[in-house]
Amino acid sequence: MEENHTIWIEKYRPVRLADIVGQDEIVERLSSYVKTRNLPHLLFTGSAGVGKTTAAVTLAREIFGESWQMNFRELNASDERGIDVVRNQIKQFARTTPLGEASFKILFLDEADALTTDAQAALRRTMESYAQTCRFILSCNYSSKIIDPIQSRCAIYRFKPLSPVAIKEEIRRISHREELSVSPDAMDAMVYIAQGDMRKAINALQGAAIISHTIDATMVYAITSTARPEEIDELLNLALTGDFDGAETHLNHLMHERGIAPNELINQCYRALLKRDMARGLKVRLIDHLGETDFRLSEGADGDIQMEALIARFVLSAERES
């Protein structure tokens, strides 16, 4: 694949632990395993795009050196969730002898929280039986979905959402390498869109760079189909001042002319409400309305009807408060 057509989240994936940004404490702890050339079973937990997969791959690179690809395997548990994947693929890899000078192999199981309870029980036994020849690194979004016997066998690393400083640092590095001009407001827009997810920020940057080498905030919001924070504030202001018709018109503009998904609007309204200075009782009711609408949408309800109903509830709640 030509370099110009490479997906940037792969092109700029760190190849050393020291290159991972925003997770300094975890990088320091993982580096100690590189020095000793040994490690326990590990459990990486955290939201998407915070560096869990990158940490696993770079850790294997530094422990095994040139032979890392022969002694490292990555599986995605969401592809095959049942017990067969543990009995066949995982067990087969774990029981074979490490290659080269390595004393063990590493199996990285991504999205491990997608495994069924029976599959996790089988995995626990495999981790126990083949600990001499294979170390397991499990990655998940929710550690509560991993059974306790597995958690007790692992050193747990909790990856936090990346800070705005870390995201901006990486965006600056990539934009410098790609000879892009990124305005400060575009940088802030990428931070707002990412919400701690580096993948989202880099994808937004690459999407905007395809259009122009000079990137501003308007371009970033358009590429990602995201409403500007001030547009969300305007929607809330209209609803909370009782202007249902105005709020409805603005909502239709965002959904149908801008193409912003209902779930994304709910998420943005939630973030705006958290920061808003308003009566506590009203804020609680509005967030409750957001949660109810989000649930109904997840159950398959019509997006237009539910979003209109949400605005109606906002108007009624504001009138009741006054």
Task: Walk me through the topology.
Blueprint: H1 8-11, H2 24-36, E1 41-45, H3 52-64, E2 72-76, H4 83-95, E3 105-110, H5 117-129, E4 134-140, H6 148-151, E5 154-158, H7 164-177, E6 181-182, H8 184-194, H9 198-211, E7 214-215, H10 217-223, H11 229-240, H12 244-257, H13 262-275, H14 280-298, H15 303-321
Parallel strand pairs: 1-4, 1-5, 2-3, 3-4, 6-7
Describe this structure in words.
- The protein folds into 3 domains: 3-158, P-loop containing nucleotide triphosphate hydrolases (Rossmann fold), CATH 3.40.50.300; 164-223, Helicase, Ruva Protein, domain 3; 229-321, Up-down Bundle (Zinc Finger, Delta Prime, domain 3).
- Helices cover 57% and strands 10% of the residues.
- It has helices at 8-11, 24-36, 52-64, 83-95, 117-129, 148-151, 164-177, 184-194, 198-211, 217-223, 229-240, 244-257, 262-275, 280-298, 303-321, and strands spanning 41-45, 72-76, 105-110, 134-140, 154-158, 181-182, 214-215.
- The strands form 2 sheets. Strands 2-3-4-1-5 form a 5-stranded parallel sheet. Strands 6-7 form a two-stranded parallel sheet.
- Helix 11 (229-240) packs across helix 13.
- The longest helix is centred in the C-terminal third of the chain and has 19 residues, at 280-298.
- The radius of gyration is 23 Å and the shape is globular.
